[in-house]
Design goal:
Distance between the termini: 27 Å
Shape: globular
Strand content: 15-25%
Largest sheet: 7 strands, mixed
Number of strands: 20
Bound molecules: zinc ion
Radius of gyration: 22 Å
């Protein structure tokens, strides 16, 4: 992932849009430790599109390096960022040690960032120097935004990441308003997503089969969004009486904290979720659900007789509490590992998914894999090519030029070509550190 970071300049005022962490095979790539290609002291403000680490991960470093301005984002983005930046600090200091570098930032830098971080509502204008700024709902994760900025009689839109609408809980991506220029993300610029309509039914099957066999269902899941997505679906299955009574554990402190943030911002939910809440359903909570925050509570899950469901991080079984459960239950032929997210090449999750591993090594112990390994079509929070094109087409009449960003080379090139050919718009894939005069 690229680590989004854009600088916009008008007169003497410089602002940034996002300040993300570059991620690859490692949690943080070595480039993150390099100085910024601008002087952070000269920046007035940072606008944050959403709370993924590749958009917020270097904000504390900005403060460490002398930035004394204000950060702006929606309220949920600020709350999520607090937990994610503190969680990353932990992982980053280990990464820095491995690479023989000083840490990227410390807890004080995170505190400083949060003290200077203002909340902005969608469609409430803010002004920074000559810039007039408006946040729109990007439909990507809760609180996500794309941002329109006007100055000198010109306007530009930064897409951030755009959502895979319709998605559970999250409202649909708003249409693009009139603007002269836009930057559009292209993570899936060359791909179309398969339909994910079957996901809830597949989850139902996995739970029912686990109950029948009296085993344990382990679901490795990312703390952000994927866990809440699972809770939303399981809640519906419970409320509709479609699954037998079963204990469900969320065994991840980060996922529990992030789920609490969801609870604070029900106003940001989509219509369907709001209506469910209005009818008296607490959509991320149901009978049988237990959140295990402490290590003692986590260990106590072992004492609960099966059948049971355990949702825990990390999402690719690369670390976290899921490993303890995998050690315990992968040898059990009545248990199941359910993979619900993308598994990167070389991860333990990927090896388990491939079905080749009959025995794996976890924390120095050989663990036989007798449990069933099943997967559900991974749900992506990103718009695919069709949705990206639909969004850009919304601004077709006004756009003078489109900049295609945030994709690995191929997806960006393919999307830029399609925008040129199908919409007849000028489109370009900018290089890193390229300067454009608008
Ligand atoms: Zn994102």
């Amino acid at each position: 992932m690229t680590g989004s970071n854009y600088l916009l300049e008008s007169g003497d005022t410089k602002i940034l849009i996002d300040c993300g962490l570059r991620q690859g095979g490692n949690f943080a790539e070595v480039e993150n430790f390099n100085p910024f290609p601008y002087d952070p002291k000269e920046i007035t403000a940072v606008l944050i599109t959403h709370a993924h680490v590749d958009h917020i991960g270097r904000v504390p470093k900005l403060f460490r390096d002398g930035f004394a301005g204000t950060v702006y984002s929606t309220a949920p983005t600020k709350d999520f960022s607090e937990f994610l930046l503190l969680d990353s600090e932990h992982l980053l200091s280990r990464e820095a040690e491995k690479q023989g570098q000083p840490p990227l930032y410390d807890v004080d830098n995170v505190r400083k960032a949060l003290e200077n971080w203002k909340r902005v509502d969608y469609h409430k204008f803010i002004e920074v120097g000559p810039f007039r700024i408006e946040f729109y709902n990007a439909g990507h994760i809760l609180g996500s935004a794309f941002i329109k900025i006007e100055a000198e009689g010109k306007s530009i839109i930064f897409s951030g990441d755009l959502g895979n609408s319709p998605a559970p809980i999250i409202p649909e991506t708003e249409n693009m308003p009139a603007a002269d220029y836009c930057l559009v993300e292209s993570t899936y610029g060359n791909r179309l997503h398969e339909s994910t309509d079957e996901r809830r039914a597949e989850l139902e099957d996995a739970i029912e089969d686990t109950v029948k066999k009296g085993g344990t269902l382990m679901i490795p899941a990312f703390a952000m969004e994927r866990t809440q997505d699972l809770l939303y679906h399981i809640n519906a299955l419970v409320e509709e009486g479609r699954i037998p009574k079963i204990r469900v554990f969320v065994d991840s402190p980060l996922a529990i904290r992030l789920t609490e943030v969801y609870g604070k911002y029900k106003d940001y939910f989509d219509q369907e979720a709001k209506e469910l809440i209005h009818s008296g359903d607490d959509i991320l909570n149901f009978k049988g659900l237990t959140l295990t925050l402490t290590t003692e509570e986590s260990k106590a899950i072992n004492e609960v007789p099966p059948p049971k469901v355990i949702i825990a991080g990390s999402g690719m079984s690369q670390g976290g509490r899921i490993l303890h459960h995998e050690m315990r239950y992968l040898p059990d032929p009545n248990s199941m590992l359910l993979i619900v997210g993308y598994q990167t090449e070389g991860s333990l999750g990927r090896r388990l998914l491939s079905g080749e591993a009959k025995q794996i090594r976890i924390m120095g112990t050989d663990v036989p894999v007798n449990a069933e390994v099943r997967s559900i079509q991974a749900y992506s929070a990103h718009a695919d090519q069709k949705l990206l094109m639909k969004w850009v087409k919304g601004g077709e009449k006004h756009l003078k030029k489109v900049f295609v960003v945030q994709g690995d080379g191929e997806p960006s090139r393919v999307l830029a070509e399609k925008i040129k050919n199908d919409l007849g718009l000028e489109a370009e894939v900018p290089e890193e550190n390229q300067i454009v005069e608008l």
